[in-house]
Amino acid sequence: MQIHVVRAGESLWSIAQSYGTTVDVIVQANQIPEPDQLVVGQALVVPIYGHFYTVRAGDSLWSIAQRFQMNYLTLAQINGINPYQTLSVGLRLYIPPTVKSNAEALAYIEPRGDTVSEDVANQAREASPYLTYLALFSYEAKRDGSLKVPPSGELSSIARQAGAVMSLVVTNLEEGNFSGELAQDILQSSAVQERLLNNVLTEANRVGNVRDIHFDFEALPASQREAYVQFLRRAGEKFHPAGYLVSAALAPKASDEAQGTWQVAHDYGAIGEVVDFVVLMTYEWGYITGPPMAVSPINEVERVLNYALTKMPASKIMMGQNLYGYDWPLPFVQGQTRATALSPQRAIELAKRYHAAIQYDTTAQAPYFYYVDQDGQQHVVWFEDARSIQAKFDLMKKLNLRGIAYWRLGLPFPQNWLLLADNFNIVKR
Predict the structure, then answer these.
(1) Which has fewest Cβ within 10 Å: 46, 243, 245, 311?
(2) Where is the GH18 domain positioned along the sequence (predicted)?
């Protein structure tokens, strides 16, 4: 699989010609609505066997071979060059496919209302072939141990047909917000916990094709840190004999000193011991009411992952990944400015409409662009593209993580799924 960044003057025809493929193949892979209108800086995936690497300043045949886990003599032979020659900047080298590693993939899906809409069902159909777990969000725990149950419709059978299993997401959401008070009421009562876990078990058996019970308790008071660990331990004792895994979503932090509202009660080490895996919510550095920046800058994500690796094995860590970006009006005013969420595909459409060139932040490994709308309002958009998600996949492989967890389905990002399949053998349970 090749990632190609559009340059000024290029067309889909010229790009297809350079890789020996067709315009239709590229259009289909990237779901391009107007093939004759590309955006400078737009990252396209080109489905070819292997990919090409363009030599940069400082590269050597040996360093390139090391990067792609190849023997440098083999790389030279494939490309018909002298293994001892100095490489010219701009030289294009063919890199054959490497052996794929195994990884799990989880994606949250959130039906709204009383039924599963056809749109949500289609989201599940499109994504499930690439998933280990389809995570139904959310089962809202109540103060008496009962559950507010989301519609599940045919999601379980849709997942099963694609070889995926269901994960049931249990939260402390109350009236649309995570409630630390609600969680405390549950965590301080053994009877309520028992009732809640029994209700979750009943629901898992009803839904069918469930493999994982996933707890997403957020904004917990610091006083509930140990109680939450004991609750998750108790959940394991309840669900493991019934054949279910137990997992937990954790707020991102990079040190023991992180004491924010979202992080303080999430004890990475203790929780890592009692659950089968965790989802680290490594996104929302850029958020709706915050200043413009990448949603999941890779430098910050790696700091969180490196900290987590000091607390639990890599085999228990799922890296969280956003399937969305944000559009901020400028100038940003703290307490007033609100961003609008958008999909990567929508971001490209905006750049096209307002004739904006897409730029790329190499530190954050994230694309962005500026534009001025029809009312004269300036905006900045940070989003995800093929380059940014490939950087995350490279990080996953570097750290040998268990897998990746996406928040959430419903925001089109076709390049992600093709690259996920190109990089990993997705574990099916």
Answers:
(1) 243
(2) 103-429
- The Cα–Cα gap between 241 and 165 comes to 18
Task: Give 177's strand partners.
Answer: 174
For residue 369, list its beta bridge partners: 381
**pTM of the shown model:** 0.96
The closest alpha carbon to 45, from 72, 15, 70, 67, belongs to 15
Q: How far apart are CA 81 and CA 121, in angstroms?
A: 51
* Per-residue DSSP letter, 57: T
Catalytic residue among 203, 218, 302, 384: 218
Residue with tokens 């574990």: 427
Domains in the chain (CATH in brackets) are 2-95 (3.10.350.10), 101-323+388-426 (3.20.20.80)
Q: Tell me the sheet residues that pair with 341.
A: 326
218 is catalytic: yes
Give Cα 66 distance to the centre of its chain: 27
Q: Specify the DSSP element, H or E, that contains 135.
A: strand 133-141
Concatenate the DSSP letters of all residues of 1-49 into one string: -EEEE--TT--HHHHHHHHT--HHHHHHHHT-S-TT---TT-EEEE--S
| Residue 101, both tokens | 């590693």
In terms of phi and psi (left: phi > 0; alpha: psi -120 to 50; beta: otherwise), the region of 153 is: left
Q: What DSSP designation does 364 have?
A: T
